[in-house]
Task: inverse folding
């Protein structure tokens, strides 16, 4: 009996933790969306139907840098040859012109790791 109670308590605790993790993820994505709106949206669409001065960022996580079909990239980004991971996106937000010298995206300088993390959560959520 005691073992069953302990097991039940453990299962309930796991459920609660999973639900909390889920809530944290939703809050991070929503915070990231708002930060993206403030810092990035004026240049980047996240919807293929909208005009975008910079490349479309829907699906960017896992995409090769400089590879969105039809976008006129700088030669520097077109030839960069790496894949957008969360770490690369954070480095890019912090100092894009240091990560890819010669890029035509102007320096945005997002240095706060929490802000970087939120924006990456949002970009991951729209990258299927
Ligand atoms: C002033 C306009 C502007 C702002 C603001 C801006 N970007 Fe950009 N972004 C660009 C341009 C232009 C490029 C293309 C750079 C090139 O071809 O060298 C680009 C490229 C990128 C790429 C590379 C995409 C690919 O297909 O390889 C990523 C990722 C990116 N931006 C993320 C962001 C994020 C995240 C923010 C906000 C923190 C942001 N950008 C803010 C104009 C902007």
Result:
């Amino acid at each position: 009996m005691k073992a069953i109670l302990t097991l039940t308590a453990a299962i309930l605790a796991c459920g609660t933790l999973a639900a909390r993790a889920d809530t944290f993820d939703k809050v991070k994505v929503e915070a990231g969306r708002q930060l993206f709106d403030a810092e990035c949206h004026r240049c980047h669409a996240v919807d293929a139907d909208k005009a975008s001065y910079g490349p479309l960022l829907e699906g960017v996580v896992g995409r090769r840098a400089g590879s969105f079909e039809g976008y006129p990239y700088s030669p520097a980004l077109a030839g960069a040859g790496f894949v957008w991971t969360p770490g690369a996106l954070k480095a890019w937000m912090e100092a894009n012109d240091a990560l890819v010298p010669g890029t035509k995206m102007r320096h945005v300088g997002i240095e706060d790791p929490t802000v970087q993390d939120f924006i990456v959560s949002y970009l991951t959520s729209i990258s299927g």
